Amino acid sequence: MCGIVGYAGTESAGPIVYSGLENLDYRGYDSAGIALVDRELTVTKRSGEVSELSVPDRPNATCGIGHTRWSTHGPPTDANAHPHTSQNESVAVVHNGIIENYESLKGQLLKEGHEFSSDTDTEVIPHLLEREIEDGHDLLSALERVVDLLDGSYAIAAVRAGSDEIVATRHESPLVVGHGDEGAFLASDVTAFLDHTRDITYLEDGDIVTLEAGTVNVYHDGEIVDREIETVEWDADAAEKGGYEHYMRKEIHEQPTALRQTLSGRIDLERGDADLDIDFPQGYLESLEEIQLVACGTSYYASQYAAQLLEETVDVRATVEIASEYEFDGGRDPWRTLVIAVTQSGETADTLRAVRHAAEAGARTLAVTNTLGSTVTRETDDTAFIRAGPEISVAATKTFASQIATLALLTVAIGRERGTLSSADARDILENLRELPGAVQQVLDEEDAVVEAAREYRDSDAFFFVGRRFGYPVALEGALKLKEISYDHAEGFASGELKHGPLALVSKKTPVLAVLTAGADSNETMNNLTEAQTRGAPAIGAVSNGASVSSLDCALTVPIVGVFEPLIANVYFQLFAYHVANMKGRSIDKPRNLAKSVTVE
Ligand code: M6R
């Protein structure tokens, strides 16, 4: 989820592209760059924020592209910043997303004598374009040919020395064109160019667009197509949120894209394996006795989900520790204990303390984080990035889903290496993972039903969330989300525990929200829910397709994705928390007393 900007028009392109990048910088990217074209191609790029970047000194250049990067392949260095150029530096490319097959493409290009200067997947694209151009193609037909070679999700923009034209395309990554008096604009997010125009065209997957001063042409399957021009009415603040009122809702809706990025290039269905690019020492995983996950808040609940998966599917002892309570028990063999720090920010003081403690005791440590270059990545032996993209809202949403998906991939990799997970069982998990983005989208499409439920129950005295197995951490997470942003009393329970005390709190003013899906022992939970319901509590269930729902006061349908169904149920709980809080006019993105990153113990 990086940012792309492009301009082709009558004005000097440098300042326009730069201000577009500044407009995208609100999400805190880690590197930036600009390419301007006139007779020549001039590129400046560097690690750091846009404010640290200088515009190339080409005042007469009226065409250019720019990029802000949120690193996924390779650290945020100057060399890895975009734009990337071709072998003879005549083509420059900016790219969002992931090219899954870049290693094989790079291998082929290396054999042909191409040299590379970055660790990125992106760099293969300008090299491939140059190869097509040398074969006599113009930039448009070169890009048409190159996209046929690419697997993955991407938005790509390219320029070429000696031409005033930008050529761009998208596949599962947003790209929008702006039509202004002074030229044509391109961006991954309209925020980039709202100062110049509000007349925009959203491109569709597979579209290829050419932008020159005064001319925009959109091609699809080789034919010019008409795409609607819409007028954006949002103000700049709303535009930063993609038209949503709050980052939280935007980020909830970003989950399908975030999950695609998390999974991209990491699943090998044929072998029934997953690859997170972690090099554990030879024999290390086979000899492991225990995996300890340390985390706080939402990351802790994601860890609980993962621990359940590790124990149930690959037969390894997995424990979860609240990071602030963590001590490395001297009775454990440090060599046989892997300590995984799960943290979105990578800066949570409690989690860092725990990981330092484990490292001092001699245990191997692994970070599972969203944030490249964060402290946790520098202090652990290995890192797996969850690739969810920047999360601004204090309430964690998309990162919870991407943490679980990343840890599920790790589970498969560990099980395969230890020989405790068959390729067929691994394939089942991987196929379910691949279904996740679509399943989340189906839930997001049901948002109106959640708005209804929020309207009906928002004035309740308290809210209880219940679930079993994988549903239990989701119940805890559902309650955390609601209390965090609505300030209402919300509690999560293992559903079997309701009858051991909490049932005393239940009344007709305390709705119970339950996870009634696969992986959550839904029959037993249904019995517990009925116990609450017969005492007057409204029963709201997130229910897998086909389950009996007639007795529920509100049933929300969860698509079938095996042990990940509770994770999908959580999307309903996120939306419920959001809409209850929104109806109460709460400060959703910045709830009182809370911070996004908690850097004190
Ligand atoms: O950055 P981390 O994942 O380490 O943060 C841990 C918690 O502070 C965080 O998950 C917190 O609970 C969220 N605000 C919950 O929405």
From TrEMBL:
One of its GO terms (biological process) is carbohydrate metabolic process. GO terms for molecular function: carbohydrate derivative binding; glutamine-fructose-6-phosphate transaminase (isomerizing) activity. It comes from the Archaea. It is an enzyme of class 2 (transferase). PROSITE patterns: GATASE_TYPE_2, SIS. Residues 280-420, 453-591 form the SIS domain. The keyword Transferase applies. InterPro entries: GATase_2_dom (IPR017932), GFAT (IPR005855), GFAT_N (IPR047084), GlmS/AgaS_SIS (IPR035466), GlmS/FrlB_SIS (IPR035490), Ntn_hydrolases_N (IPR029055), SIS_dom (IPR001347), SIS_dom_sf (IPR046348). It catalyses: D-fructose 6-phosphate + L-glutamine = D-glucosamine 6-phosphate + L-glutamate. Its main location: cytoplasm. The active site is at C2, K596. Keywords: Aminotransferase, Cytoplasm, Glutamine amidotransferase, Repeat, Transferase. Its EC number is 2.6.1.16. Residues 2-214 form the Glutamine amidotransferase type-2 domain. It is found in: Cytoplasm. Homodimer. PANTHER family: GLUCOSAMINE--FRUCTOSE-6-PHOSPHATE AMINOTRANSFERASE, ISOMERIZING, GLUTAMINE--FRUCTOSE-6-PHOSPHATE TRANSAMINASE (ISOMERIZING). NCBIfam families: glmS, PRK00331.1. This is Glutamine--fructose-6-phosphate aminotransferase [isomerizing]. It comes from Haloterrigena gelatinilytica. The gene is glmS.
